[in-house]
């Protein structure tokens, strides 16, 4: 077992060290400090190894702190939960969320490259490798969760034994669900982590989470005794499940299904990667021979692309719109039925409109749109010189920008109408112009993200022939975009001021984006090796 664990560490660290060095070489300016043969240079490898260790230590606690804070602690202040009710509130949220997380985020069924290298390519004993790594990660999870639970739990009025029980419950839940997934696998069913979510499942999931957080507003929470009973039952279930996990004989077949689907195409040649990706997306592309267009030039090319990829481009947008409409309608009904809570919601909307920047970021389909463009159009046409001429690039950029704005405006418009309606039903505002500003600002945010993703696609073109992202700058920009949008959650600006600034910024950004694309895209818009 110890030998297996050591081999696993070596494989994992080798992969991480190479990934860190590769990422460093992709960073503008800094990348010039790393020579092409950096992977064989001891000094740089030691540097990357130290970063890898520090990152692992950091993530062992940081993600747990973020989980506790954003899933529970911050809501204590939002709902004004007093110290005496904090333990009940903590368990009311943590118990259901932990059980759900055990199914959708379980290390035993998580594909990782070092698993692929060890079990598929090197042929290591699958059972030994899986169990050693699984229990090691459970121990790592337990240590991190225990430290954070004690630190945050005691500060919020929980007893020490309750904090420890939460930690034991967390690893017990992940253990208890393993036999359930293994039995599903033996019956030929998809694992929970691989199952596709339909609209009904998404709506039920959203309703479940919303219900979990809305109930405390009305004074309803899961009783402490019920939470204790559920936790005890799950811990007992983990004890019962452990022998089944140890005796399970089909770890190689289980891991093949998990890992092959994730990594085989990444290990093959570029041609095979492209072929596999195309097979996966072919069912979403219309093969109707009657699809045509009466336009010409790039307009003709764009219209055919949009019509044939309607399911890919518009499918998720329509689903998101339906979910938004349902959620906002429910909130409007709740506002009418509960005037006290409606007044608080009204005040929140009036001051915290920047919060919706993050929501618009989350529902925007810009990245999916650009990937579809590359895979099913640009990767072939970029081999022709005329396609990379400045005028051609700018012309097609404008056409595509128009189309992506259409796709993203649907949920944005519904969201803007819904938020304005929610403001009205929760008490209204003294300035009627606010309703229009909210709607326009939501649409402007949608336009901004549409322009943003299409612009960085043209300026950085991150994909290689196998549709992998091979541009470090692109990753940095998308990460910074996420962090800025997340930071906006905590910004409080009057709705009118925020709306006006959003509209002005969007107009300026479009102008700058068109100029940058025209000037630099002929050099940057190409296929990477």
Can you offer a commentary on this structure?
- The structure is a single chain.
- This protein has about 525 residues and is mostly helical.
- Helix content is about 75%, strand content about 0%.
- It contains 20 helices and no strands.
- The protein has helices at about 1-25, 40-80, 85-105, 115-120, 125-155, 160-175, 180-185, 200-215, 225-245, 250-265, 270-280, 295-310, 310-335, 340-350, 355-365, 365-380, 390-425, 435-460, 470-485, 495-525.
- The protein is globular.
- It starts with a helix and ends in a 5-residue tail after the last helix.
Helical segment count: 20
- Specify the helix fraction band: over 70%
Coarse structural class: mainly alpha
Pattern of helices and strands: HHHHHHHHHHHHHHHHHHHH
Q: What sort of overall outline do the alpha carbons produce when their principal axes are compared?
A: globular
Q: What is the terminal-to-terminal distance?
A: 40 Å
Radius of gyration: 26 Å
The count of strands amounts to 0
Largest sheet composition: none
Low-confidence segments: 265-274
Could you tell me the strand content as a percent range? under 5%
* Mean pLDDT across all amino acids: 79
Quaternary organisation: single chain
